[in-house]
Specification:
Helix content is 42%, strand content 15%. With 450 residues, the chain is α/β, with parallel strands linked by helices. Strands 1, 2, 3, 4, 6, 7, 9, 10, 11 and 12 form a 10-stranded mixed sheet that branches. It has a two-stranded parallel sheet with strand order 5-8. 42% of the residues are buried.
Length: 450
């Protein structure tokens, strides 16, 4: 047996070692800040074009599209779009949370075989991903479908994509996420961009063809909102002269307009009802604002069944796709009647506070683009998920921006995303979209017919 003195010595050595490690960690955390690269999650990996095609096919299948009868046609189409494979790295970096604290976040950086072979790239594309379940964050998937913009026919792109706060390394036990919060969306993506540039410079042999490499910002749906939020944050950091184009698809650019449309008779029946509480919860997270939710939702949401379960439990325990299924399609069964009052000053104080959050995070008034002429908006009329009026409002505020109507499947938000991404593969010149339409149309007709 060890003597008492030996035990004391061993204990002191252990304490000294722990103290030294803690001091080292403290010094590291002091030296790092928002936008600093921490390290990789696992090893970088490569995907062939056929593996990428399988990823896209499986993602679309998971999105309620029945493609099984058209698998060969779809993969032939993907072969025309994908000119080689990719190399993907999952990164961790620092960003700031709603309370201003420095937190660990994550995202991906990727480039094509052509970039890997040449050793150079001529553009960095910051992609804001579309709304997805938290367990399908970019770092949780093999390759996110939003990353297809990598295969631009005119440029050698490197893409950078943040998971967002609440996803990936910043996933929380209660599954909260600052959905459509202007500042936190912008800072998470801008910090990821800066961390990725450091990673490229310090950890790879790739080099930009220009010292101040041009930057493109893009995204569809939540990503369309994210592209503009990121633009504002990048402007604030002095990147205006490097940003060459912004392609924002079907985003909720004007939250006040979107909410008014949701509350109108036109949207009483809405098959993506989960977005309604997702927005409320997201803005509350971002503003650190405690609303009395009994003044926001109907009693039905809080009614406890015989098992002790209520619909409100969904929000902290299940993924967004489940919310859509459980909440039904009638918005009046979800939201407090005060939400629908024409005179908002007559609504309860929590509904009024919620409207203040919408106003504070509406991108059309949150800030102003330094150069609106580089912005292209994309939307389908009568969009069944994000009101087309959001893009019309944005164009009113940014008259120099271009609005492209997506016509692949009029009114179908999800299918029109495919047109958006194909258009970005040649910087919206339209040549690639025209040449691929003959392949896309038969598949689309079959899917819609099913």
């Amino acid at each position: 047996m060890k003597s008492f003195l030996e035990k004391i010595v061993l204990l002191l050595v252990a304490v000294l070692l722990v103290t030294a490690c803690s001091k080292d960690e403290q010094e590291i955390s002091k030296s790092l800040g928002a936008g600093d690269y921490i390290g990789t999650i696992g090893e970088p990996y490569s995907l062939s074009s056929s593996e990428l095609s399988d990823c896209v096919y499986n993602t679309l299948q998971d999105s309620y599209l029945s493609l099984s009868q058209y698998e060969q046609d779809f993969k032939m189409l993907m072969a025309l779009m994908l000119n080689g494979g990719v190399k993907v790295t999952r990164l961790e970096y620092y960003t700031t949370d709603a309370d201003g604290s420095l937190v660990k976040a994550s995202g991906i950086i990727a480039w094509t075989d052509a970039v890997e072979k040449s050793g150079t790239y001529d553009r960095i594309v910051s992609v804001s991903h579309s709304t997805c379940d938290i367990d399908k964050a970019p770092t949780k998937t093999i390759f996110p479908i939003d990353g297809l913009v990598l295969f631009n026919t005119l440029h050698k792109n490197v893409i950078v994509m943040a998971d967002y706060l609440g996803y990936g390394s910043r996933q929380k036990p209660d599954l909260s996420h600052p959905y459509l919060h202007a500042k936190l969306t912008g800072t998470a993506s801008a910090d990821m961009f800066e961390a990725a540039e450091r990673y490229l410079s310090e950890k790879t042999s790739l080099r930009p063809e220009q010292s101040a490499c041009p930057i493109q910002l893009c995204g569809y749906s939540q990503g369309g909102h994210g592209a503009i939020a990121t633009l504002y944050e990048m402007q604030r950091r002095g990147y205006t002269n490097r940003i060459c184009r912004v392609d924002a698809g079907a985003g909720a650019f004007d939250l006040m307009t979107m909410w008014n449309v949701f509350g109108s008779l036109q949207y009483v029946s809405y098959n993506r009802m989960g977005f309604v509480p997702y927005i409320i919860r997201g803005l509350s997270y971002g503003r650190q604002n405690e609303l009395d939710l009994h003044n926001i939702y109907t009693d039905k949401i809080f009614r406890v069944d015989s098992t002790g379960y209520s619909l409100y439990n969904l929000f902290e325990t299940t993924m967004l796709s489940t919310w859509h299924q459980k909440l039904g399609t009638d918005i009046t069964q979800v939201l407090n009647p005060d939400i629908f009052k024409q005179d908002i000053t007559q609504a309860n104080k929590d509904v009024q506070a919620l409207y203040q959050m919408f106003a504070a995070n509406s991108l059309v008034t949150y800030d102003t683009p330094d150069n609106p002429s580089i912005i292209t908006l994309y939307h389908t009329e009568n969009d069944d998920q994000v009101p087309y009026e959001c893009s019309l409002s944005a164009q009113t505020y940014w008259p120099e921006a271009t609005l492209v109507n997506l016509t692949l499947a009029p009114g179908n938000h999800m299918l029109c995303a495919f047109e958006y991404f194909v258009r970005l593969l040649d910087d919206n010149q339209g040549n690639l979209w025209t040449s691929l339409s003959s392949y896309i149309s038969p598949i689309l007709e079959g899917v819609l017919g099913d």
